[in-house]
Amino acid sequence: xxxxxxxxxxxxxxxxxxxxxxxxxxxxxxxxxxxxxxxxxxxxxxxxxxxxxxxxxxxxxxxxxxxxxxxxxxxxxxxxxxxxxxxxxxxxxxxxxxxxxxxxxxxxxxxxxxxxxxxxxxxxxxxxxxxxxxxxxxxxxxxxxxxxxxxxxxxxxxxxxxxxxxxxxxxxxxxxxxxxxxxxxxxxxxxxxxxxxxxxxxxxxxxxxxxxxxxxxxxxxxxxxxxxxxxxxxxxx
Length: 237
Hints:
Blueprint lengths: L3 H6 L2 E12 L3 E12 L3 E5 L6 H7 L8 E6 L2 E2 L5 H7 E4 L10 H5 L1 H5 L6 H10 L15 H13 L5 E5 L7 H17 L3 E5 L3 H7 L2 E6 L2 E7 H9 L1
Parallel strand pairs: 3-8, 3-9, 6-7, 7-8
Antiparallel strand pairs: 1-2, 1-4, 4-5, 9-10
């Protein structure tokens, strides 16, 4: 994990500025959230069910559009980018691994192929080794376990070389063994690639294991943000 001092010296990669999303006329599910995440930092977002955690995350790569406010990616307002370009730079791994029919390779290379780009067999092989699925190139997705499917989903995001990785409850749908294995893999990738990460989790202990800082969201607002020790000490003690 990074120290507070080193984070202060790193550049801000992603900054949310007064993000707000209103639905059903007047219900603010995300209400004036501002925060900054530094290069190589992992920020965990926690809070009760229905607090706006996932809604906030979806605003960060414009899966949903904010009612007001914006996001800066490397200092650039993300409304100046096409959503397609933005989502390559701000990749998301969902709670459930939504894979397409076909092979593991078909799924991993889907993004580049949709842009007319060729992906070498070597690149696919290297990426599968990186997510601990060596030799799975030709496997049909219907034969994958839950943990394996999540690894493919992660590889499919990483092939786009994102600047920021968003993870929405990435292990909550898995059994205990798969959860531990995928969490360990995520932790390794986060640090080996110096990615900037935002992870939503209901598991306070997981937040403590993975994150440098933690933000608590309640009723669409940030209630508290700080280091793991500052925010979660009493919760996980």
